[in-house]
Amino acid sequence: MGQLIIFAIFGVLMYVLLILPQQRRMKEQQALLASLNEGDHVLTTSGIYGNIIEFEGPVLWLEVAKGVEIKVAREAVTGVIGDPADGSSETDTSAKKSRLEKFQESLTGETSGDDDDGDSAADGADNEDAEMEDE
User: Fold this and answer.
1) pLDDT score, position 48
2) Is the residue at 121 inside a domain?
3) Is residue 128 included in any domain, yes or no?
4) Any domain includes 60
5) Same structural domain for residues 42 and 80?
6) Distances from the Cα of 118 to the Cα of 9, 122, 124, angstroms
7) How far apart are CA 95 and CA 98, in angstroms?
8) Which of 19, 41, 42, 52 is least surrounded by Cβ atoms within 10 Å, i.e. has the fewest?
9) What is the mean pLDDT of the chain?
10) Using one digit for the tens of pLDDT, what is the confidence trace for 80-133?
11) 66 and 29 part of one domain
C-alpha cells in the first residue's frame, strides 16, 4: 500500500514539474503565432532575424536584408524582437550590412573603390604575382 502512495505522489510530481510548464510554453507560443502581424521584426528557431512581409497560411515571408526574402514556416518564429522603426535596430542593420559587404569583397577580391591609394603600379605587380602563382 505504501508503494502505491509513493508511486501516485511521483506521478503527480512529474505532472506538475514537467507537463504543466510545457503546456504553458505551448500556449504562449500559440498566442505569439496568432499575434504576428506584417512588419513585425522576428527571430526564427534557426537564428534568422527578419521582418514579416507576407503571410501564406502556415508559411510567412521574411525580409532578412534589403531585397532578400525567405520563406519560413510560421511555427519557426520564436519571438517578436521589437519594432525596427524605433531606430534601435537600424544601427545593427547598417553594421551587419557593412560586415556583409566586407565578407563579399573578401570572397570576390574586389574592393568598393573607396580606398584607392593611387598606387596602381603596386596593384599591377600584385596581379602579375597572382598570375605566376596560377601557372
Assistant:
1) 94
2) no
3) no
4) yes
5) yes
6) 81, 9, 12
7) 5
8) 19
9) 78
10) 987 555 544 444 555 555 666 776 777 777 655 555 554 544 455 555 555 545
11) no
pLDDT range class, residue 14, cuts 50, 70, 90: very high
Residue 68 belongs to a domain with what CATH number?
2.30.30
Domain of residue 95: give its range.
Answer: 37-111
Which residue has 596593384 as its cell numbers?
Answer: 123
Copy the grid coordinates of residue 119. 598606387
Residues 77 and 29 in one domain: no
Query: In Å, how far from its chain's centre is CA 83?
Result: 15
DSSP 74-111: GGGEEEEEE-GGGSHHHHHHHHHHHHHHHHHHHHH---
Report the amino acid identity of residue 66. Answer: K
Comparison of pLDDT for 101 and 47, the residue scoring more:
47
The contacts of residue 58 (CB under 8 Å, 6+ apart) are 73, 74, 75
